[in-house]
């Protein structure tokens, strides 16, 4: 049994298997969903709005209840890394715009770069003076894109790393509510891409 899934506003669509997490489905369809906490249910950067097919999805996890306000839940929001498709049918969803969720470190850094570039020289200097020596070096690396290894490491760290995590690590982060079911249905693991 399969699920027809469509992401708005791009309209990108495809077929996924039951048992697939929304975050994985998005990735397969080339939709970028940030994952600041690497799928641990500790942020809201992967939030999506379910437009159609809410009943096809797994129940709300504790993490979703903690991270999403009652208003957001009422508006149909779910955390893509916490939500599994459990029934076949048609699903339509949309990523929550960055203006309505927390910024990722990468987005915040991008915003800071732009802000910094637009500052007057005095303001730039004043901003830099406020920073501690190490932080200043890291910031300069980031702002000016200098190829310092340290700067790159920091950037990678801040940019939401974890995209190369293997399947076992990803599984370990799945909602506690889903882990027992996953173990019982080992065969269904095939449907879940790292
Ligand atoms: S990536 Fe942080 S809650 Fe989904």
Could you give a short description of this structure?
The chain is an alpha+beta fold and 194 residues long. It contains nine helices and five strands; from the N terminus they run E-E-H-E-H-H-E-E-H-H-H-H-H-H.
Report on this structure.
- The protein is of the alpha+beta class and 194 residues long.
- The chain has two domains: 2-102, Beta-grasp domain (Ubiquitin-like (UB roll)); 105-158, no CATH class.
- Helices cover 41% and strands 14% of the residues.
- It has a five-stranded mixed beta sheet with strand order 2-1-5-3-4.
- The longest helix is centred in the middle third of the chain and has 14 residues, at 105-118.
- The chain starts with a strand and ends in a 10-residue tail after the last helix.
- Mean pLDDT is 82; it is low at 189-194.
- The structure holds FE2/S2 (inorganic) cluster (FES).
- FE2/S2 (inorganic) cluster is lined by residues 35-37, 39, 41-43, 45-46, 79, 81.
- FE2/S2 (inorganic) cluster (FES) binds at residues 35-37, 39, 41-43, 45-46, 79, 81.
